[in-house]
Specification:
Layout: E1 11-15, E2 21-27, H1 38-48, E3 55-64, E4 70-78, E5 81-84, E6 88-92, E7 98-103, H2 120-128, E8 134-135, E9 140-146, E10 153-163, E11 170-178, E12 184-189, E13 191-193, E14 198-201, E15 207-210, E16 213-215, E17 218-220, E18 222-223, E19 229-233, E20 238-239, E21 241-242, E22 246-247, H3 255-277, E23 290-295, E24 302-305, E25 310-314, H4 327-340, H5 349-370, E26 380-381, E27 396-397, H6 420-435, H7 457-471, H8 478-493, H9 498-509
Parallel strand pairs: 2-3, 5-9, 14-22, 19-23, 23-25
Antiparallel strand pairs: 1-2, 3-4, 4-5, 4-6, 6-7, 8-10, 9-10, 10-11, 11-12, 13-24, 14-15, 16-17, 17-21, 18-19, 19-20, 24-25, 26-27
Helix pairs in contact: 3-4, 4-5, 5-6, 5-7, 6-7, 6-9, 7-8, 8-9
């Protein structure tokens, strides 16, 4: 009988090597086969230094790859409190042997005082001082453990809703307030922005085939063959409907044109993840979310929102942006959904830069996958939508991120202080070098002056996807991403392979060691 890592709908307590109780391990959902915690998780607990009865491990997800290896992602609770940055991944062979454990936080929770000095209402008041937009509705506060750094701390995670400073983009601001001192430990935005069989005439991709649904009186932009995703017209949020299953005019004069682009982008992204990486929908279990277009008035952005698991696209003002519904933007936004259901990279600091880089990487790979002559694949982000009067520019440039005037080409210890759309430049530059090399067209200057030979975008994409889904955790920084991608390259191609060496060289070329 195969031995699996999890116990189906059960809670077990193991005994550590020193005789102290180990933390309980809880499966949050039923797993497909009979399973055993056995020595694999016990050894993982020992490796992680977790032997206190106050710590509980909660299974977030289980992923079994093509080789038969099982990767189980755990969240941690301490004295009943959710632990931010305490998540880790246990990797087990097909025969049940523990192979490795991926974690980033080394913070000890033993003896941590979990009694706050003030209550959640006080935390909301403190958090509101850093909300820069327009507040709407009440705030919420949850007592948590912040274990992302070397020393864990008791904190409130406050969520404040409203509008961002532009007065149009929704805001779900997460603020970590130290529950002992009242200091703001961290903040990040929960709304992730991009700034950037019917027949449809799209704005950017020409005439395309799109999956639709037959309904009384005609058809709707809903694709039952791809998880049932659909496209709606803001602000009514009504699903687009049509009588003859021919959609849009290829111009902005027809509101359905934007619907075609968004629907097509969602379709291609779904197919990319399924056919290239074997992923079942954006959330990994068949769910794909939905798209809404024509958001706001002359709105210069697009965004992903976890709470609705949906993409939202503005029409642009016509000068800075045209409608933000291009293929790479669609792939970018939906990848935020993939990240939220896998590594869960916190949208702040270096992990936020990695979150954005991940969306840029797969946004570009979705564009390549589509092989659409009207919007050929490239390593530019938003080239179709940005400054229509200026030819050849883009929102971001993966071969030389600094061309946008904000993003660094090379890593430094201050990268985490930048906006996440700028700090993503390190990950974007690394990926271009890994895929294309430094002497590709366009050439990509390295930070150490060394030449880098690329391994091709397909192999590079597989390495990044594996790193994201089974190696990275919510608090991964650039050094951790290097470790994760090297481990992924080892799994896929071998420890001394050309691919492994290319990963190492590409990170060195952007000053990540």
């Amino acid at each position: 009988m195969k031995r699996h890592l999890l116990a189906a709908l059960t809670t077990l307590t193991l005994v550590g090597c020193d005789g102290a109780d180990s933390p309980t391990v809880t499966s949050s959902r039923e797993v497909h086969d009979e399973v055993e915690l056995s020595s694999a998780v016990k050894r993982a607990q020992q490796n992680l230094g977790m032997r206190t009865p106050e710590e509980e491990l909660v299974v977030r997800s289980v992923f079994k790859d093509d080789s038969g290896e099982e990767h189980v992602r755990f969240d941690k609770r301490y004295r009943g409190l959710r632990t931010i940055g305490g998540d880790f991944v246990v990797h087990q062979s097909e025969t049940g042997l523990l192979k490795s454990v991926t974690l980033n936080s080394q913070a000890s929770l033993r003896g941590l005082d979990v009694k706050p000095v003030f209550d959640g209402a006080g935390a909301v008041v403190l958090a509101e001082k850093v909300f820069a937009g327009q507040r709407q509705g009440p705030g919420s506060a949850e007592l948590v453990i912040d274990a992302r750094e070397d020393k864990a701390a008791l904190a409130y995670e406050v969520i404040l809703e409203g509008l961002q400073e532009d007065g149009a983009t929704p805001s779900e601001l997460h603020v970590l307030v130290d529950a002992k001192t009242g200091q703001i430990r961290e903040k990040w935005e929960g709304v992730h922005t991009a700034a950037a069989t019917g027949s449809g005439k799209s704005l950017y991709s020409g005439t395309v085939s799109i999956g639709t649904n037959s309904v009384t009186g005609g058809y709707e932009l809903r694709d039952p063959s791809r998880g049932g995703f659909y496209t709606v017209n803001y602000p009514t949020n009504a699903v687009f409907k049509d009588t003859d299953n021919v959609w849009g005019s290829g111009t902005t004069a027809d509101t359905a044109t934007a619907g075609v682009d968004a629907h097509y982008g969602q379709q291609v992204t779904y197919d990319y993840y399924k056919n290239v990486h074997g992923r079942n929908g954006i959330n990994g279990t068949g769910g794909t979310g939905y798209s809404r277009v024509h958001y706001g008035t002359r709105y210069n952005n697009a965004f992903w929102q976890d709470s609705c698991f949906c993409m939202t696209y503005g029409d642009g003002d016509g000068s800075t942006f045209t409608p933000l519904i291009s293929l790479d933007v669609a792939g970018h936004e939906m990848t935020h959904g993939v990240t939220s259901r896998t590594a869960g990279l916190v949208y702040s600091g270096e992990s936020g830069g990695l979150n954005e880089a991940t969306s840029d990487i797969f946004g570009s790979l979705v564009e390549f996958y589509a092989a659409n002559a009207n919007d050929p694949g490239d390593f530019l982000i938003g080239e179709e939508i940005y400054t229509p009067a200026k030819s050849g520019d883009a929102l971001r440039y993966m071969h030389k991120p600094s061309l946008d005037g904000k993003s660094p080409d090379c890593y430094s210890s201050t990268v985490g202080n930048l906006d996440v759309h700028a700090s993503s430049g390190i990950g974007n530059h690394f990926f271009y070098l890994l895929a294309q090399g430094s002497n590709a067209n366009p050439a990509s200057p390295t930070c150490n002056g060394a030449a880098v030979t690329g391994i091709g975008k397909d192999k590079a994409g597989k390495i990044w996807y594996r790193a994201l889904t089974v190696k990275m955790t919510s608090s991964t920084k650039y050094a951790g991403a290097r470790t994760a991608t090297l481990a992924a390259a080892t799994d896929l191609y071998g420890a001394n392979s050309t691919e492994y060496n290319a990963v190492n060289a590409a990170w060195a070329a952007v000053n990540v060691k």
